[in-house]
Structures are given as structure tokens and as C-alpha cells.
Design a protein that fits this description.
It comes from Flavobacterium pokkalii. By secondary structure, this protein is of the alpha+beta class. The protein contains three helices and six strands; from the N terminus they run αββββαββα. The chain has a six-stranded antiparallel sheet with strand order 4-3-2-1-5-6, with helices on one face.
């Protein structure tokens, strides 16, 4: 009787443990070493001539590897017509699950902001773009709004220091 109860208990434990799934998020699996995701925002510091840029490029070294990001900032000097200068460049930042979620939320925020307002002509404003390098997804918005989730992502990555 004790052996039967022991086998029953072991069988129940094995059954329960085999039914549990791994709680790993499978978001952004389309991003790999060939297909990268770019998040770009350009402020309106110089009016119709654009402004300062923040760019985050997300990728993997291989198909199932760690998500990584390269971050750059370009500063534009208004009025002299010169090209923007790279003022910050950080490569191979490891993306955590929380940052992964902020990337998805940034994409959703840009889509929602673009779809929730009427289009009107403009010569200046914030420019936002999210694009896959294979061009299967391109979301551009101009004039746009400041993306709060993108700014939160930049802060989480400690890139504003």
C-alpha cells in the first residue's frame, strides 16, 4: 500500500512538472543577425531642417542568440547647414526581458499615435520611424510626438548619461 501511494505521488509530480511550460517570452523572434530592427527619432530642434537624432538598432549574432542593440546619438548644429555629428555611440548592449517589452511597447505606441490622429501638412516637427531591415515593416510618422516608451527604454539602457 505504501509503495502504491509512493508510485502515485511520484507519477503525479512527474505529470505536473511535465505540464508546466517554460515562461520564456518569444517576442521579437523575427529579429536576427540578418534582419535588424531600427528605432529612430529626430527632434524638431532646427525646425524644418530636423534636429538631433537618437537611433537604436536591435539585432542578434545568430538566429536564437541574445538580443543586442547599438545606440547612437547625432547632434545637429542649426543654421550652418552642416551634417549631424555623432556625439554618442554604444555597441552590443545586451537587451533584458524588460527592455524587450519596452521595444514592443514603443512599436505599439508609435502605431497608436499615428492611427489616432488626422493627417495634416507640416514643414517641421518630430520624426519617428521603426523599420525592419528587410523592409517588411516600416512605420514612419511625421509630424509625430515624443515616444514615451522609447525614452523609457533609452533610460533603462542607461544611455542618457
Amino acid at each position: 500500500m505504501i509503495m502504491k501511494s509512493l508510485y502515485s505521488l511520484i507519477g503525479t509530480i512527474v505529470l505536473i512538472s511535465s505540464c508546466q511550460t517554460e515562461n520564456k517570452q518569444n517576442t521579437l523572434l523575427y529579429i536576427n543577425h540578418v534582419n535588424k530592427l531600427e528605432l529612430l527619432t529626430v527632434d524638431d530642434n532646427c525646425g524644418e531642417w530636423g534636429g538631433n537624432e537618437k537611433q537604436l538598432i536591435i539585432y542578434r549574432d545568430d538566429f536564437k542568440g541574445q538580443l543586442l542593440a547599438d545606440y547612437s546619438e547625432k547632434t545637429k548644429t542649426c543654421g550652418n547647414g552642416s551634417e549631424s555629428k555623432i556625439t554618442k555611440l554604444i555597441k552590443r548592449i545586451k537587451i533584458t526581458e524588460e527592455e524587450n517589452n519596452l521595444i514592443v511597447e514603443s512599436i505599439n505606441e508609435l502605431c497608436k499615435n499615428k492611427m489616432d490622429r488626422e493627417e495634416y501638412p507640416s514643414h517641421s516637427g518630430i520624426f519617428n520611424r521603426i523599420m525592419l531591415s528587410d523592409s517588411s515593416m516600416i512605420i514612419t510618422d511625421f509630424p509625430s510626438v515624443e515616444l514615451k516608451k522609447f525614452n523609457e527604454l533609452v533610460q533603462k539602457l542607461n544611455l542618457n548619461n
